[in-house]
Amino acid sequence: MLRCPGQDHRFWxxxxxxxxxxxxxxxxxxxxxxxxxxxxxxxxxxxxxxKIDLGCAEWCRYAEQCAGIQVSAxxxxxxxxxxxxxxxxxxxxxxxxxxxxxxxQIQAEEGGDPLVVKAAAILHDIGILEAEQKYGSAxxxxxxxxxxxxxxxxxxxHGVKAQDIEHICRIVGSHxxxxxIDTTEFRIVWDADRLVNLAADFPNADKWKxxxxxxxxxxxxxxxxxxxxxxxxxxxxxxx
Length: 240
Hints:
By secondary structure, the chain is mainly alpha-helical. The chain has helices at about 65-85, 90-110, 115-125, 130-135, 140-155, 160-170, 185-200, 205-215, 220-235; strands at about 15-20, 30, 35-40, 45-50. The protein has 2 domains: about 10-50, no CATH class; about 70-235, Hypothetical protein af1432, CATH 1.10.3210.10. A hairpin with a 6-residue loop joins β3 (about 35-40) and β4.
């Protein structure tokens, strides 16, 4: 299988393999530059790779051909991180994956940065458990406080650029209130989340009321189209 030279070990230099000290016991843990975290063999603690390098797209002459592969790889890594945070909470894992699914459908029509859209969709609820522990509530205002720092830590570990982290965290920090942000990527994630939540939020609404809610609430033409098809035009159809 053909691999990008930026990620093919045959093209690596000696400095691309290095050691990081375990913060728990001080044991040296050997990393390849693209490994986000490893478990210390001595004490079992998870050690983050503080020198991670996934940024070959910034300089590699093959970047145009493989940028989609890079985003796809990051997508899978962030899904794994989201599942790690939520643990056995299948309901919240399934919700995040459903939002991601709709976000990808909307992004294909509306444009925007696919990395930002996918990452924000996967991590939009990432602060919910911390909110419950700190405030005894999963209310949106608490999710918006606790989510961005957790998302930022995950994104840094996986080598996401600072400007993208800032954008993603602004989406995570506004996905209930829509405060202080109105980018294409935010509108996509907003609509994807509304699509998953609409039936539960308005269980007794008839299709005429739902049409009004959709027209007022949704922020992208594609998101609005999907909502109308699912809840007004074909209300018996199973959501995608």
